[in-house]
Each structure stands twice: as structure tokens, then as C-alpha cells.
Specification:
By secondary structure, this protein is α/β, with parallel strands linked by helices. The protein is built from 12 helices and 20 strands. Strand 5, helix 8 and strand 6 form a beta-alpha-beta unit. Bound molecules: adenosine-5'-diphosphate and zinc ion.
């Protein structure tokens, strides 16, 4: 049994991959120019024609496409195929504003599921596995994407969707699930519930989990691996580029291989739009190479991360992206200091807390304030006020060292912070409410 879903592509030499990308890019640009008036106009305004794009080296000549464009063009403005050729629609979760919709032809769906099949195979999945998909189903791409990938691999697929956590665990035991797919925050919740029900990882057969759709830290990975007794792998994607499976983690667990035969990545300086060299942190931009209904050229994801072509021990030659540290619009600017929720998560877990927290940012007397509500475990819980205050002080100090600013910490009783079955809400920024 091969450890690759498509060895030829996944282990292709750089030269062959470049050749394939160049050919596909030329065709994709032509398709967009001829069938998507919205983007044609952007190209015309910039004075670029399809003839100017002969290879990926010419990509920088093309205009960017942003989420604002997608919203403006809603619903059909970026459709590049007749609706009669489309077979499916999905939509973003709307985490950062109005939803955008994406269209798929039969072929688009096939290629997308293929990308997910690569991800499942990379964590050791085969037709002998039982794959429990507890991402949400419906318009959200998580459930349908991994479901399609699981079918392709031939796993026994459990289309659970999210929620009803006790039932998830019951099925996991009864069916002997070996692979689980969901958001990392839901995986932590399932793990917590498993232990509360009096079980240990020895009572389940899970060996691997494929977690994505939201940022999560290395510390969170270790937490989930411990709770469920599995290896936890990252998967990345966004509705605009089809869904999960744009990139996936291999056994090395040091970043995600990008399916670059379908999605060509660039890292840019989010302020200037300039393309940055490999190894620098910047905004991830994707150009689809094979999409039919909803092709996107130089789409700005707003996700911040780094690319590397360092040789991977798994044998795949596909470029790797680091865990995105969040979106450029997740970054909190507090008293002039840049803070990512993921940094806070790192400190919390390092200090022995669970990943159940809520960050509240506000502005009082013209000064930014940051309050972090952190849940104590039953063991950490104490009736003595002085104990709690001491803990709060210690945690605030650890935060100050990491973040450069001191937040106010509120330790709260076990089980008082809402758990997430999908994408977790970690931040309430009240400054936005004041306008
Ligand atoms: P929305 O933008 O409404 O959340 P999507 O459901 O399409 O819509 O989510 C895509 C976004 O989710 C990505 O742009 C990225 O910010 C985030 N995301 C997806 N996978 C990961 C991951 N593995 N790590 C960090 N962030 C991720
Ligand atoms: Zn690898």
C-alpha cells in the first residue's frame, strides 16, 4: 500500500512541477480572461493580456483579487462556467463578514476530493480505516470535503457532522473509528468529554486526526494528541479555493504540503503587495491552476505564514507552508503592540491551562485594555481567593514576557467558557462596537 495518494504528483521533480504549473497557468488565465468579465476588467485596467503570462514567473504582472471583490461580485459575478455546468455550491463560514459563495463543476468537485484524499492518505489512511467526519456538513466545506476524500480513499465513512458530542463518542467506540476529522477546538472538546465520560484513549481505536479550518498552536496539538491518544495533523483550505485540502500535513508534522499542481502559492508583503522571497512571513496568495467554475487568480487569503522548499523526510516535493499564525485581520493591535490570539494560546497551555479561553479587548480612557478569561481545571480550582489571585498574577507575568504587554487575567470556574463544535470564537473586540 503506497503512502501517497498520487505519488507521481506528490513526489514530482521541481522542474517537472514547474512545467506543469506553467502550462496550467497559461490555460487558466486564458479561461478567466475569456469567461470572467469581472477579472478581465481588472486585467484590462492594468494593461495585461493573457499573452503576457507565459509562465509562473509572469504571475506578478496580474492584479490581485480580494475578498472585497468576491463580495462585490456576489452572487454570480465571478462565475466562469454556465450554471448548467455547475453541480454544487459552498459558502464561507462568514467568520469575518458577509459570506462569499463558491461554485463547482463536477470536475472541480472531483479534484477537490482528490486533494482531500491525499491528506487522508498522508496520515496513514487506507480503505481499511473508519473515518469519522465531524466537521459541519452543508454549505460549510469542511464536512463535504473530507467526506469526499474519505470516500475516494475507500474508508468506511461516518458522516457525523459536528455536535452531539456524546453520540460522537458512542459511534467512535461502536464503529471503531480510526481517523477523525474536525476543527481542533472541537477535537479538544471531544477529548475532554471522553475523559469526563470515564474513558481513556485506550478505550478507542483512533490513531490519527485531521484538524483545520481555524488557527491552532503546537501546544494545542500536543494537548489533543494526549487527550485522544492520536497523532494530530493539520489541514488548510478556504472556501474560495474549494475548501480543505489546499494543503495537508505529512508524518513529519512540520507544516503542510501545498497541492501546488492545483494551487500556486505566493507570499506577499500585505502592505505593498510585493512578492517576498521564500522564508519570509507574509500574506498567502493563491492562484488556482485547474478550476473551472470559480477560478481565482492571485487571490489574497489574508492568512499570514511562511513557505519552505526544504526537503521533507516523507519524500514529497510539494512546497510546504507553516501553520498560519492567523489572519492579518485576527491580529490585535493593543497599545501599539501586535498580538495574535495564537500567542496567548501558547502561553496558556505552556502554563498548564486548557485551551478554553476568551479574550476581550476594549478601550477605556483612550487606552486599550485586554482581559483574558481563562478556565481552571477541576484540579486547579480553589476556594481560596488568595490562591487564585496568585495564579492570575503568575499567568499575567508569563503573558507579559511573551506578548510585551500585560493583560488582565481572570481565572474562571471549570466549564464556564462555551465549547466550540466548529470554529471557536476566541476574541471579542469591543473597540469595534464603539466605532
Ligand atoms: P471564513 O473565512 O468565513 O472562516 P472558510 O470556512 O472558508 O471561511 O475559512 C477559511 C479560513 O479558515 C482560512 O482563510 C484560514 O484563515 C482559516 N483556516 C483554515 N484552515 C486553517 C488551518 N489549518 N490553520 C489556520 N487557519 C486555517
Ligand atoms: Zn512531508
Amino acid at each position: 500500500m503506497s503512502k501517497y495518494w498520487n505519488q507521481e504528483i506528490e513526489c514530482m521533480s521541481r522542474e517537472d512541477m514547474k512545467k506543469l504549473q506553467d502550462e496550467r497557468l497559461v490555460a487558466q488565465v486564458k479561461h478567466v480572461y475569456e469567461n470572467m468579465p469581472y477579472y478581465k476588467k481588472l486585467m484590462d485596467e492594468k494593461g495585461v493580456t493573457p499573452d503576457d503570462i507565459k509562465s509562473t514567473d509572469d504571475l506578478h504582472k496580474l492584479p490581485f483579487l480580494t475578498k472585497a471583490d468576491l463580495r462585490e461580485a456576489y452572487p454570480y459575478g465571478l462565475l466562469a462556467k454556465p450554471l448548467s455546468e455547475c453541480t454544487e455550491i459552498h459558502s464561507t463560514s462568514g467568520t469575518t463578514g458577509k459570506r462569499v459563495v463558491a461554485f463547482y463543476t463536477k470536475n472541480d468537485i472531483d479534484l477537490w476530493h482528490d486533494c482531500c484524499a491525499r491528506a487522508i492518505t498522508a496520515v496513514g489512511g487506507t480503505k481499511d480505516d473508519v473515518c469519522q467526519v465531524c466537521y459541519g456538513y452543508g454549505l460549510f466545506t469542511g464536512g463535504p470535503g473530507l467526506d469526499g476524500g474519505s470516500h475516494k480513499v475507500g474508508c468506511l465513512t461516518l458522516p457525523m457532522s459536528s455536535g452531539n458530542t456524546d453520540r460522537q463518542i458512542q459511534f467512535m467506540m461502536d464503529m471503531g473509528s480510526t481517523i477523525i476529522c474536525c476543527t481542533p477546538s472541537y477535537a479538544a472538546y471531544i477529548g475532554e468529554t471522553l475523559h469526563e465520560m470515564g474513558y481513556t484513549p485506550d478505550d478507542i481505536k483512533l490513531k490519527a486526526g485531521i484538524f483545520g479550518a481555524e488557527p491552532w498552536t503546537e501546544e494545542m496539538r500536543h494537548e489533543i494528541e494526549k487527550l485522544l491518544g492520536i497523532k494530530a495533523y493539520d489541514i488548510y483550505g478556504l472556501t474560495e479555493t474549494s475548501g480543505p485540502g489546499v494543503s495537508f500535513e505529512c508524518e513529519e508534522q512540520t507544516g503542510m504540503h501545498i497541492n501546488e499542481d492545483h494551487f500556486y502559492p505566493e507570499i506577499i508583503n500585505p502592505e505593498t503587495g510585493e512578492v517576498l522571497p521564500e522564508g519570509e512571513v507574509g500574506e498567502l496568495v493563491f492562484t488556482s491552476l485547474t478550476k473551472e467554475a470559480f477560478p481565482l487568480l492571485r487571490y489574497r487569503t489574508r492568512d499570514l505564514c511562511v513557505l519552505t522548499r526544504k526537503k521533507c523526510s516523507c519524500g514529497r516535493t510539494l512546497v510546504k507552508m507553516a501553520k498560519p499564525m492567523g489572519r492579518s485581520d485576527d491580529m490585535l493591535i493593543i497599545r501599539g503592540v501586535n498580538v495574535f490570539p495564537s500567542q496567548i494560546e501558547t502561553v496558556l497551555i505552556e502554563q498548564g491551562y486548557t485551551p478554553n479561553y476568551l479574550i476581550e479587548v476594549d478601550r477605556k480612557n483612550n487606552t486599550d485594555t485586554i482581559d483574558i478569561n481563562v478556565e481552571m481545571t477541576k484540579e486547579q480550582f480553589s476556594d481560596k481567593m488568595s490562591d487564585i489571585q496568585e495564579r492570575e498574577k503568575a499567568l499575567a507575568e508569563a503573558m507579559r514576557t511573551m506578548l510585551g504587554i500585560g493583560p488582565k487575567i481572570h481565572l474562571v470556574s471549570p466549564k464556564t467558557i462555551a465549547r466550540s463544535e466548529g470554529k471557536a470564537v476566541r476574541v471579542i473586540d469591543k473597540r469595534k462596537l464603539h466605532g
